[in-house]
Design a protein that fits this description.
By secondary structure, the chain is an alpha/beta fold. It has a single domain (about 5-185, about 215-235), classed as Rossmann fold, CATH 3.40.50.720. It has nine helices and seven strands; from the N terminus they run βαβαβαβαβααβαααβ. The chain has helices at about 15-25, 40-50, 65-80, 100-130, 140-145, 150-170, 190, 195-205, 215-225, and strands spanning about 5, 30-35, 55-60, 85, 130-135, 175-180, 235-240. Helix 1 packs parallel to helix 2. The structure holds NADP nicotinamide-adenine-dinucleotide phosphate. The site of NADP nicotinamide-adenine-dinucleotide phosphate (NAP) has 28 residues, from helix 1, helix 4 and helix 7. NADP nicotinamide-adenine-dinucleotide phosphate binds near residues 35, 139 and 189.
Length: about 240
């Protein structure tokens, strides 16, 4: 029986690349999206071209009931869930002096509460099967902090604490929980930055370039595989040496 993987926020960027990479590695895929659009259609098409099944499941990860519905749909269709990748994330950057309460709450609700919502609804099925992999996408700024990102850095630091705590709770059930902390990856999220700023940041990275979504997807593939079966509660940096 093929293994199955759910990736949240998988219409574009890192989530899309993770979904395609796991499809190529032989998983049946469920991609979660918020709004139906061309990006969703293209991603689904590319996944199906690998020969994998692809369910596309609408829902906002910050909404608990949406996550409950998504978990039930996967079980109805696939009968089990082997890998959950909590990838959906947003930024609302500004200095704390200017940060509105909603800017803080929205980012925490999608990034951190969203990770809780999806995990809470998936984990009972993994517990029952006594196997599972949960991979949470954090960020290097969750470790280092970053001016203008108090909301985002807090959400990503929270994901690391969540990952380590859950890893301790469910290790005895053979459920492995890890986190990835990407550095500066070329996606729509970082496209908003001016070219000069991107060049300045790239100079500070030991590998002297931005990362690609594929760099993160490769590590997800490893953490989902049997080759990582003695690794849990870890934060793997994929950042070209940016933070060390
Ligand atoms: P992206 O291109 O902006 O993609 C984010 C994805 O998340 C989109 O598909 C988006 O869908 C989805 N999403 C947002 N809010 C959602 C919600 N409430 N419910 C469901 N889906 C939602 O960003 P990315 O760069 O690929 O980032 C992916 C993850 O990596 C994020 O967690 C991000 O924080 C993390 N990360 C990125 C970088 C980087 O440099 N790019 C660095 C470190 C960490 P919509 O179309 O609906 O918005």
């Amino acid at each position: 029986m093929k293994k199955t993987a759910l990736i949240t926020g998988a219409t574009r960027g890192i989530g899309r690349q993770i979904a395609i990479t796991l499809a190529q590695a032989g998983y049946d895929i469920a991609i979660n999206y918020r709004k139906e659009n061309e990006e969703l259609k293209n991603t689904k098409q590319e996944i199906e071209q690998t020969g994998a099944k692809c369910l596309s499941l609408q829902g906002d990860v910050s909404n608990y009931e949406d996550c409950e519905k998504i978990a039930k749909q996967i079980i109805e269709e696939y009968g089990k869930i082997d890998v959950l990748v909590n990838n959906a994330g947003i930024t609302k950057d500004t200095l704390l002096m200017r940060m509105k309460k909603e800017d803080f709450e929205d980012v925490i609700n999608v990034n951190l509460v969203g990770t809780y919502n999806m995990t809470k609804n998936i984990i009972p099925y993994m517990m029952k099967n006594r196997t599972g992999r949960i991979i949470n996408i954090s960020s290097v700024v969750g470790i280092s902090g970053n001016a203008g990102q108090a909301n985002y850095a807090a959400s990503k630091a929270g994901i690391i604490g969540f990952t380590k705590s859950l890893a301790k709770e469910v290790g005895s059930r053979n459920i492995l929980v890890n986190s990835i902390a990407p550095g500066f990856i070329e996606t729509a999220m970082t496209d908003v930055l001016k070219e000069e700023i991107k060049e300045e940041i790239a100079k500070t990275i030991p590998l002297k370039r931005m990362g690609q979504a594929q760099d993160v997807a490769n590590v997800v593939k490893f953490l989902a595989s049997e080759e990582s079966s003695y690794i849990t509660g870890q934060v793997i940096h994929v950042d070209g040496g940016m933070l060390m």
